[in-house]
TrEMBL record, chain B:
Name under which the protein is recorded: ABC transporter ATP-binding protein
Record carries keyword ATP-binding: yes
Superkingdom of source: Bacteria
GO MF annotation terms: ATP binding
Family of the protein in this entry: Belongs to the ABC transporter superfamily.
Keywords assigned: ATP-binding, Cell membrane, Membrane, Nucleotide-binding, Transport
Organism the protein comes from: Nostocoides veronense
């Protein structure tokens, strides 16, 4: 098993609730309440959960955008959670973040070159001053954008292209870990696949480890090696992708999986639907014992008093982490292995470059933002430099990474 | 309301209430609908000749990405487009055989809400924040049925109970912000079904909701539809939700229908390259080792829709004819239509 690169231990983030004229603290929103996990080199850890479960706060804690209330985040053995000043700055180079909304996470008054080059101002040792512009163009090329567009502004790009800019900024400092907070949620279906494929390609080329935070369980399954399910600030289940999806042992995971619609009408009426009653309780006042007990059909007395630990529990085949006193595996979605099915290339794109860039270079695209590209022959020469992985297609995780 | 003549499928009872009767179960006929928006940059052609129909008790899904014209279609049927900038230069929207676009305003107001109702994606901004939810639901009865305050509030409580809002009697006086997203969407549904409409349009009803709540809301919608034999138009980009709910699907691209089919046929064998591309670009929960094949490029700018087939710049099958001749939506197999010059080839692939 590859080495552990990032380690979270008993990570807690409580936000104080202040009320009244004196703004006294009346309680806490327990956004993240004791999270433990290891992230290995080059792997993707998916984090799924519903809104308010603390998954985004977890992402912000991992890059130290928020200081944790308690607990540690260790990057290669060095504690980030309690570092400060120079030390923290040096550590941060290794962990970068990509945000959900490509419309608000890019400064509209900065050019793409300035946005992607800004990390070099803070970490001047990464690329010497003279080479920065060239490095930014390389990065644009790497994420499938036209390097000639370095002087454009964010509004001149579509949503998918903006997300590529956010990714280019994220990988500018050559980090080892990239935290992706809902990176494809704001994108249209047909564009979402382009960005997912790009992220897989970058991981293969750069050996990045991802923490992929999302609410879409299908996307997370597709991209992740391991998956953790969060509920009210705690992890309910953690395991390899096939363990969590094929033999989930926590009732919450089972309910989540049963609620995800599958794009196949022949499964209509044949799938088991677990309907949860009520809404997620407030994280300011989470239920005692197991936090899921108020909505769980299996809950007994023990669940109301004893907090179930996230420990290895048998799942029928082996064992994986689950935080349920009465963990037992249940097949919710029968899985088909389609790894030998190649999509028909007459209908879809298997190139990693931004298809808009290709189309633009070929002169076939109606520019989405009403700006005709000033494509030159030189730019076209750049554009046609193939960017592909060894096998020439994106979707596959190499086998050696499968058993991470 | 003096224009009702001939054997029109509407009758008026003594109290002035109009009853519309569908002919052979046909509720809605949209014929060659065009909608354009006049903007400073030019004319954006949001809908360019869309025709479809809806029968009683049927679920029709209109599937498309942002900018495909699916929401504009819904707003045109509902009669809530801002005109200007919107303009409907051509087309007809017939409800029980009567064209809503040429109907007098007072009659149209009657149809809206009482006969055709709509739910929106964002329940928080669709509800008025300064009125209690019960008051807003009751308004339907006060405005359309002339009910008094206490009777209409009693009706509101009944509806809130029907859509499974716990402790409806106490919560009828609560304000929208005091409800969760799922509960707010239930209140929207209660308002929409208040007057027992024959057609319910749901515009991305669950997009803003979590997956477990989405399942609850979709289940409620289906239940109400069956109970009341409503015609349901579900507008969405989510191929998963469509597969669970719809009877028929109409796929929209750049303001046109590119494919219509029954839900089983469409997922088994799409007849348009765009539909096929969409199906191959979404990750599936029940598959592992899947290769995601993205559709190239971006949807076109509606100010400059490419000549020929609007999908041709993104289509890998495109030939010269696709760049010059616009393919008509034509029958390519029994009960299915596709707007592709090479639809048969796509079907056989």
């Amino acid at each position: 098993m590859p080495e552990v690169i990032l380690q979270a231990r008993d990570l807690v983030k409580h936000y104080p609730i202040r009320r009244g004229i004196l703004r006294t603290v009346q309680g806490h929103v327990k956004a993240v309440d004791g999270v433990n996990f290891d992230l290995h080199k080059g792997e993707t850890l998916g984090v799924v959960g519903e809104s308010g479960c603390g998954k985004s706060t977890l992402g912000r804690l991992l890059v130290r955008l928020e200081a944790p209330t308690s607990g540690t985040v260790e990057f290669e053995g060095a504690d980030m959670a309690n570092a400060s000043g120079k030390e923290l700055r040096a550590l941060r180079r290794n962990i970068q973040i990509v945000f959900q909304d490509p419309y608000t996470s890019l400064n509209p008054r900065m050019t793409v070159g300035d946005i992607i080059g800004e990390p070099f101002e803070i970490h001047p040792e990464v690329v010497p001053k003279g080479g920065r512009r060239k490095r930014v163009q390389e990065l644009l090329d790497l994420v499938g954008l036209n390097p000639e567009h370095i002087n454009r502004y964010p509004h001149q790009f579509s949503g998918g292209q903006r997300q590529r800019i956010g990714i280019a900024r994220g990988i500018a400092l050559d980090p080892k870990v990239l935290i992706c907070d809902e990176p494809v949620s704001a994108l249209d279906v047909s564009v979402q696949a382009q960005v997912v494929n790009l992220m897989e390609k970058l991981q293969n080329e750069l050996g990045l480890a991802y923490v992929f935070i999302a609410h879409d369980l299908s996307v997370v399954r597709h991209i992740s090696d391991r998956v953790s399910v969060m509920y009210l600030g705690k992890m309910a289940e953690l395991g390899h992708e096939e363990e969590v999806y094929e033999r989930p042992t926590h009732p919450y995971t089972q309910a989540l999986l049963s609620a995800v619609p599958v794009p196949d009408p022949t499964l209509r009426g044949k799938r088991q639907h677990i309907v949860l009653q009520g809404d997620v309780p407030s994280p300011a006042n989470p239920p005692s014992g197991c936090r899921f007990h108020t909505r769980c059909w299996k809950a007994r007395e023990k669940c109301k008093t004893d907090v179930p630990e996230l420990i290895l529990r048998p799942d029928g085949v082996g064992e994986h982490f689950s935080a349920c006193h009465f963990a037992e595996p249940q097949v919710i979605v029968p899985t088909t292995d389609v790894s030998d099915v190649e999509p028909d290339e007459r209908f879809a794109e298997v190139d990693h470059r931004d298809p808009a860039t290709i189309a633009e270079a070929e002169g076939t695209l109606q520019d989405a933002d009403g700006l005709r590209p000033e494509t030159t022959t030189e730019a076209q020469a750049n554009l046609f430099a193939p960017i592909q992985d060894d096998e020439g297609h994106p979707g596959r995780v190499p086998d050696e990474r499968r058993d991470v | 309301m003096s224009t009702t003549t001939s054997a029109a499928p509407q009758t008026r009872s003594g109290d002035g209430k109009i009853t519309y009767t569908p002919v052979d179960g046909r509720l809605l006929d949209v014929e060659d609908l065009h909608v354009e928006f006049h903007t400073e940059d030019g004319v954006a052609k949001a809908i360019n000749g869309v025709s479809f129909h809806l029968d009683q008790g049927e679920s029709l899904a209109i599937l498309g990405e942002s900018g495909s014209g699916k929401s504009v279609t819904a707003q045109a049927i509902m009669g809530i487009l801002d005109m200007p900038p919107a303009k409907i230069p051509e087309g007809a929207i017939k409800y029980c055989g009567l064209d809503l676009l040429t109907m007098p305003d007072d009659q149209r107001r009657w149809v809206r809400g009482a006969e055709i109702a709509m739910i929106f994606q964002d329940a928080l901004s669709s509800l008025n924040p300064v009125f209690p939810v019960g008051w807003q639901i009751a308004e339907m009865f006060r405005q359309h049925r002339g009910m008094n305050k206490s009777d209409s509030l009693a009706q509101a409580v009944r509806l809130m109970e029907r859509v499974s809002i716990p402790a409806a009697k106490d919560r009828v006086k609560a304000y929208p912000h005091q409800f969760s997203g799922g509960m707010r969407q239930r209140i929207m549904i209660a308002m929409a079904i208040a007057l027992d409409p024959a057609v319910l349009i749901a515009d991305e009803p669950t997009t803003a909701l979590d997956v477990t709540v989405q399942a609850q809301i979709m289940a409620l919608l289906q239940e109400l539809q069956q109970e009341r034999q409503m015609g349901l138009i579900l507008i969405t980009h989510d191929l998963g939700v469509v597969a669970d709910v719809a009877d028929r699907i109409a796929v929209m691209y750049a303001g046109r229908l590119v494919e219509t089919a029954n839900v089983y046929d469409l997922y088994a064998k799409p007849a348009h390259p765009y539909t096929r591309g969409l199906l191959e670009s979404i990750p599936r929960l029940d598959q592992k080792g899947q290769t995601l094949a993205a559709i190239g490029g971006l949807p076109p700018n509606l100010l400059r829709i490419p000549p020929g087939c609007a999908f041709n710049p993104r289509c890998r099958m495109a030939q010269d004819i696709c760049r010059t001749d616009r393919p008509e939506l034509r029958e390519v197999a029994p009960g299915r239509k596709s707007a592709c010059h090479f639809a048969e080839e796509v079907l056989d692939a």
